[in-house]
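User: I've been trying to design a sequence by hand for this structure and keep getting stuck. Would you show me what you'd pick, starting by listing the structure so we're on the same page?

Assistant: Good idea, let's start from the same input. This is the structure you sent:
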């Protein structure tokens, strides 16, 4: 015959209920946290090397930034005019 442990669970109604427990609680293994790789530091030399190796990518980015800035100005002016009238 297996040995039973009695646990008492208190209910809100004010009485206790005995629960038999055949096995002790098993501990659930805690999963290890994943290793997070840190981003490498970007130095001036790395940036300059990238610009030298990829001039077309950088110039396209700058061109797009200028276009976005112009669009932003137009949208702001349009909203000001719409609010004025």
């Amino acid at each position: 015959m297996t040995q039973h442990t009695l646990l008492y669970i208190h209910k809100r109604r004010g009485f206790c209920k005995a629960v038999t427990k055949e096995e002790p609680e098993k501990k659930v293994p805690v999963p290890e946290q994943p290793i997070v790789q840190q981003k490498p530091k970007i130095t001036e030399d790395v940036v300059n090397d990238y610009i030298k190796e990829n001039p077309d990518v950088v110039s396209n980015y700058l061109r797009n930034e200028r276009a976005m800035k112009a669009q932003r100005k137009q949208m702001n002016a349009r909203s000001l005019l719409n609010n004025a009238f």
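That's my pick for every position. To get oriented when you compare it with your attempt: Strands lie at 5-10, 16-21. The CA atoms of residues 34 and 61 lie 35 Å apart.
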